[in-house]
Amino acid sequence: MASAARIRPLGSSTLSVPTNLSITSSRRTFASASRLSSFTTRPRGAPRTAFNKPLLRQSFRRTESTQAPIVKKSSGFRTFLRWTWRLTYLSALGGTAYVCYGIWESRHPPDQSDPDPSKKTLVVLGTGWGSVSLLKNLDTENYNVIVISPRNYFLFTPLLPSCTTGTIEHRSIMEPVRNFLRHKKASVKFYEAEATRIDYEKRIVFINDDSEIKGEINSTEVPFDMLVVGVGAENATFGIPGVREHGMFLKEVGDAQQIRKRIMDCCETATFKDQSPEEVKRLLHMVVVGGGPTGVEFAGELQDFFESDLKKWIPEIVDNFHVTLVEALPNVLPMFSKQLIEYTEKTFDEEKITIRTRTMVKNVTDKYIEAQSTGPDGKPKLEKIPYGLLVWATGNALRPVVKDLMGQIPAQKESRRGLAVNEYLVVKGTENIWAVGDCAIANYAPTAQVAAQEGAFLARLFNQMAKTIEIEDELKQCSDAQERAPTKEARDQVFMQIKELQKRLRRVKQIGPFEYSHQGSLAYIGSEKAVADISWLTGNFATGGTLTYFFWRSAYLSMCFSTRNRVLVVVDWIKSKLFGRDVSRE
C-alpha cells in the first residue's frame, strides 16, 4: 500500500514539465531526424553540405530579438532638396503650359462682331506706346475704331539699342498690329498710311499711302467723331548744321539696321590695305551724343560688342576702337540718383568709354564734329572730334501734322513742345480730340512709361463714357415708361429702376483725372551691369550691378507685348551668348 501510495500518475504530479522544453525537444528531435535522414541518404564519398554559420547566427538573432527595427530618418537637407526639385519640376511644367497656351491663343483669334454704324467713330493715330496701350484696354464693341499709322507694328523701343549690335534681332521686338487687333471683340479697321493733316472743324483726317507699292487711290479722307493723336515725335537736331545729313538716329527699326551696317562698314574700312593710322583711328571712333538712357545703353552695348566679338574676329582694330559719350549737361542719366550716376561713370571708366559732359555740339561734318566744352580754367573752347560713326540720341521735335493742328486751335498758340492737354488728356481748345505720348504736353517726361499709362487711362475713360451713354439712354426710356404707366404700382416699379440707374450713373462718372505713377527707371550700362532707380513705398530704391542686370532683363522681358515677343527675345539672348554676335555686313 505504501508503495502504491508513492506511485502517482504523471498528470497529477506537482512537478510539471515546462512547455517550452517539450517544444524544444520536439524541434530537436525533428532536426536530429532531418540530419539523420540527410546523413543516411547522402551517398558514400559525397561532400558534406556547407552551412553559412554567420548567416545562421544573424537569422537566429533576428528570430529571438524582441526589439523593433531601427528606421533611418532622412536629413532635413535631403528633404529640402527633394521638395525643391518637385517645386522646380512643377513650375517648369506650369511655365511650359502657360507659354504653349499663349502661343496657341495668339494663333487662333476668335470671331469678331461687325462694327455698328449707329455708334461713334473713334480714330486713333499711331501705333506707339500710348496708342497701343489704349487699343489693348479698349472695349471695341462700344465704338467703330479705326487705326491709322505708317507702320503696321508696335516696336518695343527699350530693347532697340540691343538690335544695333545683333544681341537681339529687330523682329523679335516687333508685334504686328493686326495680331492683337484681331483678338478684340469687335473688328477694328487698320490703314497703313501717314496722317498728313487734321481738319478740326470738319472732323476729317487726311491720309496718304507712303508705301512703295501704291494703288489707284493713295490719298483719302477719314471722318471721325472722336480722335486720339498718338503720333509721337521726330528727332530734334536743335538747328545744328549737319546732324540730319551725317548723324544717325535711334528711334525706329530702320535706324538700328543702319547703325549696325555702319559699325561693320567702319571696321572693315579701317582694315583696308594701306589705310593711314590717322584714318584708322577716325573710322574706329564711335561717338554717341546724348547721355540719357538710350545713349548710355547704346554705348554699353557697343562696347560689349567690341569686347566679346569684334576684337576676337578682327584683332587689327583692338588698339584703335574707342567709344565716346557726349552730353551737354553736367552728368549722364540726369533722371537717376546721384549714386547711380557715379556708379555709371565709374563703370564706363572701367570699360574705357570716355564721357564728355558739359560739351555742346555746334556743327557736324562728314568726318568730325565741332564741339564747345569748358576747359579747366572755366573758359569755353572749341575743338574738333573726328568720328567714324555718329549716333544722335537726344531730343524730340514736333511732327508736321501736330504743328498744323496746333495752328488751327487758338488755345494752342502758346504751346511750343506739343499739344497742350488738360488733366483728362483732352487737347485744350477742343472737345473731341485727345493726345497721348511724346506729342502731348502733360507736365511729365516724354517716356514710354508715361505714354503707356496715358493710353490705359484713356481706355478706361472711353469705356466709362460708353457706359454713361448707355445708362442715360436707359434712363430716358424709363422716364417715358413711367409716364405711360397705367397704375401707381407700375410707376413705383419704374421709379425704383430709375433710382438704381442713377446710382450706376454716379459710380460710372466718378473717374478722376490722369495721375502718373512712376514705377522707376532702368538702364543697361555694359559689362552685364545695369542700374535701377525704383519707386518703393514712399521712397526710391537705387541699385546697380550684375544682379540689377538680371532684374533689368526680367523686367523688360515681362514688359514685352506678347508671349511671342518674350520667346523670341529669350532665344536671341541664348543665341548671342552661345554663338556670339554676327559680324557679317548686310
TrEMBL record:
This enzyme's EC code(s): 1.6.5.9
A GO cellular component entry from the record: mitochondrion
Pfam families named among the record's database cross-references: NDH2_C, Pyr_redox_2
Annotated External alternative NADH-ubiquinone oxidoreductase-like C-terminal domain residues: 518-582
Molecular function in Gene Ontology: NADH dehydrogenase (quinone) (non-electrogenic) activity
SUPFAM superfamilies named in the record: FAD/NAD(P)-binding domain
Keyword terms of this UniProt record: FAD, Flavoprotein, NAD, Oxidoreductase, Transit peptide
Domain FAD/NAD(P)-binding: 121-455
Class of enzymatic activity (EC top level): oxidoreductase
Catalyzed chemical reaction(s): a ubiquinone + NADH + H(+) = a ubiquinol + NAD(+); a quinone + NADH + H(+) = a quinol + NAD(+)
Family indicated by similarity: Belongs to the NADH dehydrogenase family.
Protein name: NADH:ubiquinone reductase (non-electrogenic)
Organism in which the protein naturally occurs: Tothia fuscella
